[in-house]
Design goal:
Blueprint: E1 3-7, H1 11-23, E2 27-32, H2 35-42, E3 48-52, H3 61-67, E4 72-79, H4 80-85, E5 92-96, H5 100-123, H6 130-147, H7 151-165, H8 169-180
Parallel strand pairs: 1-2, 1-3, 3-4, 4-5
Helix pairs in contact: 2-3, 6-7, 6-8, 7-8
């Protein structure tokens, strides 16, 4: 489920939107009055939608938008005049006075786009961390030294044993190191 953060300078405005969204079954993480609070929470989340007003207690919406990851989208709720003046590219504007059905429809489109992005990201091969790469490289070096293998042969050996045993390459490399050391 995609998380939603709400940012308005007046806490009561944000709470009203939170209540509306929660009645429609959305996962609202919190209501914030400053961009800094929202940014701190976004740093802990993978994907989400920020529903906000034009100005917060510490910044305007465009400042927060510039700091957001691509895994987040922003819905700006503002006066028709502010939206017609022009809003930052990539931000979805919803005019005041707010019509609940319009907001829910726009939110559904935004969430669908994030769900597609999340599925696409899941299909990407995961990057190994430096510590994991170091373990695999150490195991390859041990195999090259003790079994006179080339680097490619050592890599294939770890890879094949990993597939045969159902363990990850890192786990297999650790076992090799435990057996030889």
């Amino acid at each position: 489920m995609i998380d939603i953060l709400i940012v308005f300078p007046k806490l009561s405005d944000g709470q009203g939107i939170r209540n509306l969204l929660m009645r429609h079954g959305y996962n609202v993480i919190g209501v914030y009055t400053s961009g800094a609070q929202a940014k701190a929470m976004m740093d802990e989340l993978d994907y989400g939608v920020v529903v906000c007003g034009y100005k917060f207690n510490d910044m305007v919406y465009s400042d927060l938008y510039e700091e957001m990851d691509s895994n987040f989208q922003m819905m700006l709720i503002a006066s028709a005049m502010k939206i017609q003046e022009g809003i930052t590219d990539g931000v979805v504007g919803v005019e005041m006075p707010l019509k609940a059905n319009d907001m829910i429809e726009v939110l559904e489109v935004m969430i669908s786009a994030l769900e597609r992005l999340r599925k696409k990201d899941r299909k990407k091969p995961r990057e190994r961390k430096l510590a994991q790469k170091a373990i695999i490289n150490e195991a390859k070096n041990v195999l090259m030294k003790n079994r006179n293998m080339t680097e490619e042969e050592a890599h294939r050996y770890i890879q094949k044993n990993s597939m045969d045993s159902g363990n990850s390459m890192v786990e297999t490399a650790r076992m090799i190191l435990d057996l030889i050391h």
